[in-house]
Amino acid sequence: MKPLRLLRWSGTVLSPRARPSPLTRPSFHQYLSFPSSPRAQSNVASIFDPEPDDTTEDPPALSRPSDSPDLLSMPSPPPYRARESAKLAALHARLSLSPRLPFETLARCLIDSTADPDPRFNNSSLALLGSSLLSYYTSEAILCRFPRLPTEVVFASMWAYCGPKILGIMTREWGVEVAAEPGGEVDAGYLQCRWVERKDSTGQPTVPDVKEAGKIRPNADKGWRVGVSSRTVYDNQFGDEIKKQKPDGETRKQQEPIPLEEACANFVNALVGAVYLHLGRRATKVFFTQHIMSRHLDVSKVFNFRQPSRDLSRLLAREGFESPVARIKSETGRASRHPVFVVGVYTDNQELGEGTGASLQEARFKAAVAALKSWYLYSPLESRVPSETLESGAKKWEPLMVDMGEVIV
Amino acid sequence: MPIKAIRQTAIGRNGVGAFILQCKRLDFHYCDWAGSSRGMNQFLTHLLPILARTSPSIEIHVSPRPSHHPVIRGHYINGREKAICVRNLEMQQVLKKAELLRDASGEKLRRVKGGRAVGSLNEGVRGVWSPMHGAEKKEEMFGR
């Protein structure tokens, strides 16, 4: 059977060579200045109803204008093309989105700022909103479930649930495809962005480096040690440093490519923002629970202890217990090639944790780790999150346990 | 030395929260002239609209492929594709093949062995047997 070469047949339409080069492309404001420009129809949602009624009325479609301008000259597909895309409709159905979320908004979520620098048509504003919502919902879910988690572990858990890498993976799992090159003539169901590969060896992106104007953190140039508690103030939700960008004129040009996972993260964030604006708070929570919190993360595997015995003794001293004592519970084959020791750590004859190892040191180390994990991974039997109280008819909020925080060594 | 964290990503479990149908696109290729496409052409006229309506999350492409046998090709989220030649099949048989492609996961076909048909990431509630702890139990049992 001969393979079909559909791309070759349609290549004359889709090939980037058929498009004017970006340098000769007219600037965006040129065709916005047309009085009847169809792209002046922004599809920003109006003031939303926080508890919308269940009437599902189809939003009015943006019809194709009679004097449609040249698609090839556009940086991204215009909103009226969203209704023509089978890919977009399939994506809408695949994510089980309500018909109250119009296709035009979904198409706008797919337009990254690297494809279309105009904030009225790209997803940057929606992504900002969605990113805040995602971090809020994720952080409250993590902190209410494990109130004693150390800050570093909270950062890593946040990154595991809504970091750029996981959002990139999620975009692939949703079957979103990336356009080879963004443009007005491309199907609106593709993710429109300009992206580059990340370097694998060093992990550094190959994108042209952002011209930094400095860092948000004061005294950053002095090389002082960065404490964990200051990272909650100065860093982003994943504990990564926020870089200040130079003001207008010297900022990174919007057209410069970004790593693909960042573009995907922008799409998912924008979609969450769009769901919030069009469908309300409850639908956003459902979307978050179904797509993000349903993923599996073993928080006990996120910990990385360096000196667990010392941490444990400091923790017990802080909590007013006797200092820990490690005792051998049982052993076998001490003189053999494969000895096994079972060691428990005790305070005041109460066992805190137990570990097995091929040497006494290893077993004691593991016992201390087990004791620390059983402390830090305390989880209340019934935990509510603050956002549940926003629903109508919710029970009164009862304060949760607030822990003193991790032990500082 | 403060506690450090190891960055890892949360693992997706399709169907635990949202369910994403793994087939994202179906291509139907037919020939107007050849007899082997008779069932396929009937399928395209009568049954495809129903199939498309009942599975909206699949993008459907219909295109002629003159002088060739009719083919249904499924594209899946994992990047693989599956093609089934439906030459000389009746309309209902073509529908069966299309449903087979729609419901497939896109993975290679492999034998599911008895105990591993369902996998779980959660720990067993019973715990794992440990060779280290038999002696205490024994002492408790026999009261030594």
UniProtKB/TrEMBL annotation, chain A:
<dbReference type="InterPro" id="IPR044444">
    <property type="entry name" value="Ribosomal_mL44_DSRM_metazoa"/>
</dbReference>
<feature type="domain" description="DRBM">
    <location>
        <begin position="307"/>
        <end position="377"/>
    </location>
</feature>
<dbReference type="GO" id="GO:0004525">
    <property type="term" value="F:ribonuclease III activity"/>
</dbReference>
<keyword id="KW-0694">RNA-binding</keyword>
<keyword id="KW-0496">Mitochondrion</keyword>
<dbReference type="GO" id="GO:0003735">
    <property type="term" value="F:structural constituent of ribosome"/>
</dbReference>
<feature type="region of interest" description="Disordered">
    <location>
        <begin position="15"/>
        <end position="81"/>
    </location>
</feature>
<dbReference type="InterPro" id="IPR014720">
    <property type="entry name" value="dsRBD_dom"/>
</dbReference>
<protein>
    <recommendedName>
        <fullName>Large ribosomal subunit protein mL44</fullName>
    </recommendedName>
</protein>
<dbReference type="InterPro" id="IPR044443">
    <property type="entry name" value="Ribosomal_mL44_DSRM_fung"/>
</dbReference>
<dbReference type="GO" id="GO:0003725">
    <property type="term" value="F:double-stranded RNA binding"/>
</dbReference>
<dbReference type="Pfam" id="PF22892">
    <property type="entry name" value="DSRM_MRPL44"/>
</dbReference>
<dbReference type="InterPro" id="IPR036389">
    <property type="entry name" value="RNase_III_sf"/>
</dbReference>
<dbReference type="InterPro" id="IPR000999">
    <property type="entry name" value="RNase_III_dom"/>
</dbReference>
<dbReference type="GO" id="GO:0005739">
    <property type="term" value="C:mitochondrion"/>
</dbReference>
<keyword id="KW-0687">Ribonucleoprotein</keyword>
<feature type="domain" description="RNase III">
    <location>
        <begin position="88"/>
        <end position="149"/>
    </location>
</feature>
<feature type="compositionally biased region" description="Polar residues">
    <location>
        <begin position="33"/>
        <end position="45"/>
    </location>
</feature>
<feature type="compositionally biased region" description="Low complexity">
    <location>
        <begin position="58"/>
        <end position="74"/>
    </location>
</feature>
<dbReference type="GO" id="GO:0006396">
    <property type="term" value="P:RNA processing"/>
</dbReference>
<keyword id="KW-0689">Ribosomal protein</keyword>
<comment type="similarity">
    <text>Belongs to the ribonuclease III family. Mitochondrion-specific ribosomal protein mL44 subfamily.</text>
</comment>
From TrEMBL, chain B:
<keyword id="KW-0687">Ribonucleoprotein</keyword>
<dbReference type="GO" id="GO:0032543">
    <property type="term" value="P:mitochondrial translation"/>
</dbReference>
<dbReference type="InterPro" id="IPR007741">
    <property type="entry name" value="Ribosomal_mL43/mS25/NADH_DH"/>
</dbReference>
<protein>
    <recommendedName>
        <fullName>Large ribosomal subunit protein mL43</fullName>
    </recommendedName>
</protein>
<comment type="similarity">
    <text>Belongs to the mitochondrion-specific ribosomal protein mL43 family.</text>
</comment>
<dbReference type="GO" id="GO:0005762">
    <property type="term" value="C:mitochondrial large ribosomal subunit"/>
</dbReference>
<keyword id="KW-0496">Mitochondrion</keyword>
<keyword id="KW-0689">Ribosomal protein</keyword>
<feature type="domain" description="Ribosomal protein/NADH dehydrogenase">
    <location>
        <begin position="32"/>
        <end position="105"/>
    </location>
</feature>
<dbReference type="Pfam" id="PF05047">
    <property type="entry name" value="L51_S25_CI-B8"/>
</dbReference>
<dbReference type="GO" id="GO:0003735">
    <property type="term" value="F:structural constituent of ribosome"/>
</dbReference>
<dbReference type="InterPro" id="IPR039927">
    <property type="entry name" value="Ribosomal_mL43"/>
</dbReference>
<dbReference type="InterPro" id="IPR036249">
    <property type="entry name" value="Thioredoxin-like_sf"/>
</dbReference>
